[in-house]
Amino acid sequence: MTFSEAQNRIKKLRSEIDYHRYNYAVLDEETISPAALDSLKMELFRLENEYPELITPDSPTQRVAGKPLDKFKKVVHSAPMISLFDAFSENDMRDWEERNVNYLKRTIREEYYCELKLDGLAIKLRYVNGLLVEGATRGDGKVGENVTGNIKTINSIPLRLRVPTASELNALGLNSTEKNELSKLIEKGTIEVRGESVMSKKVFAALNKKYLSLGKAELANTRNGAAGSIRQLDSKITAERKLDFYAYDLLLDGYERGEIIRTREGADKLANLLGFKTLKQNRVVKNLGEVFKFYAEVEKKRAALPFEIDGTVVKINDLKMWLTLGIVGKAPRYEMAYKFSAEQATTKILDIIWQVGRTGALTPTAVLEPVKVGGAKISRSTLHNFDEINRLDLRIGDTVIIERSGDVIPKVISVLKNLRNGHEKKIAAPDFCPICNSSVIRTGDEVAYRCSNKKCFAVMMREIIHFVSKNAADLEGLGPKVIEQFLNGGLIKDAADLYDIKKEELLSLERFAEKKADNVLKMIASRRILSLNRFIYGLGIRHVGEESAELLADNYKKYLSLKLDSEKILNPKLKIKISDLIKYFQSLSREDLENLADVGPIVSKSIGSFWSDTHSLKLLDKFENSGLALTLNPNNSSEASSNLNSIKNSELNNKIFVLTGSLDGLTRSEAKDKIKQYGGKVKENITKDTNYLIVGAEPGSKYEQAKKLGIKILNEEEFLKLIK
Ligand code: IVH
């Protein structure tokens, strides 16, 4: 980006951010989600970092968040209402623990107290001599808004603290001095309770139903419902909105953290005894592993909870540790918000690609400048159909808001048109199918454009499924459903694309979370070296089965051995260039091909046309440039490569095997792999050249044939000995 482009972008970002800020902070109207607004601020922040000379005092980056509103009296907080650091992944949480370990210079043995992170408005309540005297919002952290009148309409906030009984205080594990001091504080001292005011999902739905019938503007979400209700000048409106309050912190005036009440768990119990609601889901855990379990459980239960949460908060349970660890920058070291995915972010549209689905419908997918949406990097987003592009008035180069909730495919929600610079490109409907180049049609009122070639998707699917199969590339776990998902998601157009899939592309698919994406990538990486015979078989050349593929690979090996010395041929690191392979096959005449054993006129014709067909040449070219490497080694695992020496010495080397009947301890394909691994060959039928017949249970006619020809017959046990 040039200086003047940056200057332009900064100007536009500032006015867009300011527009939404004003709507929200002054007019109480949310015109963009906080996550999307954060995303814009982040972009501005990054640009200003790059061009510090462009920072101005009125830039939104120079603003302290959440200035109190003028319409309320101001409250100076006794202790600042700070914020929390955010974590979005297990790794973020491990980093947090490691930072604390480094800070403390010792390992962390402390328990953690895991809490729900309520999505509402932070409130502090001051009780003097047991009476509620002040309720305030956070404001900018130092100065908040006095909303005592409104707070008093919340039924779950006690106007006078409940006095716990002696046995209740005993149960808290307090000694008699502590019990006395606490009782004194409740009745004759100051206690501050901090927590979250929330609107339940039920109240939110009922209110919106009512507002809709009255023609009034609906509430955008429960957080807005809570925040808007508390910051009302008319407390009747607050009351109508039936808010709830949950306590998450207790400050005992005149006492340090950890005095009287030693743990976060204890503070929660005490808040409860004082008459507050606390979250019954909160619990003590012993280590990060258990924190992750808590998080996973909460994530599962999230939808069924009566209120909205946006994650969990993990706190060191021992309150004395809070003093030791303290605060850094804007937030404490001793607690961390371990959040669910922020669901919206802003990014740029780099391109639009068209996917062909099972029904031949062409679906546009937006290629995005990679962006983190709640911990996961996303680089693609579905657009459904061409009408959606028109409805959004989407152009290449546009800045858009994308949304991703849970494992659902990310969507483009809206276009920030004010950020356009005039270089955006309009998107045209497709004329030709990106897969088979057939013309594209749109019939009647249908929204979808379709490929006119009815077999397009099915053929493509079949080709890829064959390529990934066990006896070809053996890309384990990539079943037809996953392949279809990859095709529909625009991750692949053919088998060659499989080797270049990126993590962020996988994360853009439904049901693909971190772990699954990592596993798929690991599996593909472990199969980046593929033997030539498997590759040729995987290409799906008509009439070329496993054996013919082996023959073709063997013949190429022979051809190479004329050019290279045998050490090189046996070198497991020798990589085959696909362009050489193409040249070799193109140089073979039909007769040459027919002269190769087992290849008749039909097969030779099919092989010949495959290596000259433009569609296959395009695919081969993609393979050449993909992350796949081909070897002459008859197996494709690294284990096989290290076995090359044993091949040379093995009894199996160059021996021809035939199998019949079913084996007990290994599958037929495993047996074949073993034989090949030791340099042997496997054939379907018994001939005079066969060296061994391996016989399993219920053998077929091959057994009699072999006996007649005097071929050595091995049972499973003997075979296993041979390959040991
Ligand atoms: S402890 C330093 N515990 O999350 C602030 N906060 O993103 C102490 N929140 O402003 C906060 N549930 O309003 C804490 N169980 C919980 C919470 C919680 C929701 C809110 C709180 C805070 C915001 C920070």
Structure in words:
With 724 residues, this protein is α+β, with helices and mostly antiparallel strands. The chain has five domains: 3-63, Helix Hairpins, CATH 1.10.287.610; 76-339, DNA ligase/mRNA capping enzyme (D-amino Acid Aminotransferase, Chain A, domain 1); 344-451, Nucleic acid-binding proteins (OB fold (Dihydrolipoamide Acetyltransferase, E2P)); 530-642, DNA polymerase, domain 1 (Orthogonal Bundle), CATH 1.10.150; 646-723, BRCT domain (Rossmann fold, 3-Layer(aba) Sandwich). It is 40% helix and 20% strand. It has 29 helices and 28 strands. The strands form eight sheets. Strands 14, 15, 16, 18, 19, 21 and 22 form a seven-stranded antiparallel beta sheet that branches. It has a five-stranded mixed beta sheet with strand order 2-13-10-3-9, with helices on both faces. Strand 15 (361-373) and strand 16 (376-382) form a beta hairpin. Helix 1 runs antiparallel to helix 2 and helix 18 (532-538) packs across helix 19 (546-563). The site of 2-(butylsulfanyl)adenosine (IVH) has 13 residues, from strand 3 and strand 8.
Major sheet description: 7 strands, antiparallel
Unreliable residue runs = 64-68, 637-649
Number of strands: 28
CATH superfamily of the largest domain: DNA ligase/mRNA capping enzyme
Gyration radius, in Å: 34 Å
Strand content: 15-25%
Global outline: elongated
Features:
724 residues, alpha+beta, Helix Hairpins, OB fold (Dihydrolipoamide Acetyltransferase, E2P), 7-stranded antiparallel beta sheet, elongated, binds 2-(butylsulfanyl)adenosine
